[in-house]
Specification:
Elements: H1 3-37, H2 40-44, E1 49-51, E2 54-55, H3 56-73, H4 80-89, H5 100-105, H6 110-125, H7 130-138, H8 151-168
Antiparallel strand pairs: 1-2
Helix pairs in contact: 1-4, 3-4, 3-8, 4-7, 4-8, 6-7, 7-8
């Protein structure tokens, strides 16, 4: 087998491994977050832009996937149920934070306030564990001042920062708002 054939086979194997990883992650998201994924309010997050052209919905999905990858790569053994649900709900604030009129009423402190708004909204619809509450409440650390105290919250915080950076600088682009 020549150089190009070996290279092609390695590429095929890498693509196969990525596809298998994607299938495993999708299965975990469905297993632990199916009720969230199919809820009317979570689907409404497709109407709001998070960073750049990325919707809040796609951002939360990316953070959940990234959290699972970080957990596995670092061998952290976080509780996947809490990790996924906290990641999906971490930005469950259900408003357009770019709307100047709305923000003027909230004194434009979205970065500081939205974790508590997301937590209040999530608690209205879901039975949250203490770990899930911690993830949602503290994912904006250091803006939230008090750092996370559990591994799951640290993982989601790191995944959120990574995904937000990629979206803000244009390395990961969304498709903008969608009709629900």
């Amino acid at each position: 087998m020549g150089f190009w054939e070996r290279r092609r086979e390695k590429h095929k194997e890498r693509i196969r491994r990525l596809y298998e990883q994607h299938k495993r992650i999708q299965a975990l998201l469905k297993e632990h977050g199916n009720d969230i994924l199919h809820s009317e309010n979570f689907r409404k997050t497709q109407e709001y832009i998070q960073h750049g052209s990325m919707t809040v919905h796609n951002h939360c999905m990316d953070v959940a996937r990234c959290s699972l990858i970080i957990n596995k790569k670092l061998g952290l053994n976080c509780n996947k149920h809490d990790l996924i649900r906290g990641a999906l709900l971490h930005d469950y604030f259900l408003y357009d934070w770019h709307d100047k009129e709305y923000l003027s009423q909230r004194k434009r402190l979205h970065g500081f306030r939205h974790p508590m708004t997301a937590l209040e909204n999530a608690e209205k619809e879901y039975n949250l564990s203490d770990t899930q509450r911690e993830i949602i409440r503290k994912h904006m650390w250091p803006l939230t001042i008090v750092p996370p105290t559990c591994g799951e919250a640290w993982v989601v915080t790191a995944a959120d920062k990574y995904c937000s950076f990629r979206e803000t600088v244009g390395l990961r682009k969304g498709h903008g708002k969608r009709a629900v």
